[in-house]
Amino acid sequence: MLALLGLLAGGTVRAEPPAAGGIAVIGAPGIDLARLDRAAVASIFRRKLRTLPAGERLVPVNLPASDPLRTAFSMAVFELEPAAMDAYWNERYFHGVSPPHVLASVEAVLRFVATTPGAIGYVPACAVDGRVQVLMTLPAAVAGCPAAESSPPPAP
To answer: 23 - beta bridge partners?
Structure first.
């Protein structure tokens, strides 16, 4: 755990330009995470790492278990499908640890992460905009880029 905290200590991560593909792990503007890697992301989303070294609470959020992006994220980070994590969360529940909150859409994740200190989530890399910062990009096959719910329809 101390090694993991050492990995996370450091300056604020600068937003990367969105990658053409893959899954962007995103954070709230100003979140103080440095050298984030797959193991650190797994610890955050398993709720084993719950605060930053400075004491800020981490708030991971997921998409619904049936969402193909959640499946791709789970396979990239845990090498398990979301349903395979049920036993883990059942055991953690008895220790007073709840799983990350589930939000209904990519746009909901973007909005929540953008406005919640310590929030961390994931979206298709092509959906990243200036509201959030990219902490890392996971290589994964992501089908298309969903249009944001609040985006106006394309001009004719």
So the answer is: 124, 138
Q: Please state the φ and ψ torsions of residue 19, each to the nearest 5 degrees.
A: -80, 160
Domain of residue 129, residue span: 12-138
Residue labelled with tokens 């049936």: 66
pLDDT digits (tens, 9 = 90+) for 46-65: 999 888 877 889 999 999 98
**Degrees to nearest 5, angle at CA 103 with 99 and 105:** 145
Q: Where are the beta strands (DSSP E) in the chain?
A: 23-27, 59-62, 101-102, 119-124, 133-138
Has residue 145 been placed in a domain? no
Stated pTM of the model? 0.78
131 closest CA partner among 106, 156, 153, 154: 106
Q: Helix, strand, or coil here: 94?
A: coil
Question: Using the 8-state DSSP alphabet, how is residue 9 labeled?
Answer: -
CATH number of the structural domain spanning residue 24 = 3.40.190.10
**Beta bridge mates, 121:** 26
Q: Are 73 and 46 in contact (CB under 8 A)?
A: no
**How far apart are the C-alpha atoms of 152 and 146, rounded to whole Å?**
13
